Amino acid sequence: MSKRKFARIAAVLTTLAATMALIGVAVIGTGAYFTDSTPGAITGNLGTVVVAVSGQDINFANLMPGETQTQTVTVRNDGTGNEDIYLAFKNDNFAWSAVNDMGQYGKFVIAGNTYDNLNNRYAQGTPGSGVMSTNPASGCYNVPRVAINYLPHVISIFTLTPGQTSTFNVSFTVNPCMTGGQGSTLWGTAPGDFSPPIAAAPLQYVVAAFQPGVNPNDQMNGAGKIAPLGLPLATDSYSPPATFQ
User: Fold this and answer.
1) CA distance 245 to 226
2) Does residue 96 register a pLDDT over 90?
3) Which of 44, 101, 163, 219 minimizes the number of CB atoms within 10 Å of its CB?
């Protein structure tokens, strides 16, 4: 091979090497790395809180002193997630206040919880003292007075999984030593206890379902919140309470 031909080939190789080097720098400089991608999409929908209830209309009829009547309420979770079930009393007609004026003459047992000596004159849990009556002519003569309690506004019942059905019982007992009030309605109050007087009326309530762990009084609940109620005290005047929202 002649020196001239060898020089031309060497020049071509040198030029090609320089060109490839420039291409390499360009590739590195523009970040042209190997890559791949797969398309996706985000969708979603809101869950539901739905409760179905049967047996909620309760009638304790023709109760006698010392008698207990029990009725069963059935609840089914028709929502998409777990639900905390509550029983919440309304007081639009003041029957809830009237119930809490019965003292030891009435006793509720709801979902296994006992509410005795229904008295709104004192704080819940105040110890009872003495006896119901010291009059030998009274039907409650020397009967020990139990601790003072009252029927709460909101009672936690249970938690249900989606599709689950469960029941709870509501029982009411008239004190055996009751001697008056034959034929009257259960929620009648003693004359003069309230001003203006509270007329006997049905004790109204709702069965309410909430997301698990949500406090029924949580401000975040908005329209679903169970508004707190106040107990009108005996001998006190009262005004309409907050209604269940």
Assistant:
1) 6
2) no
3) 44
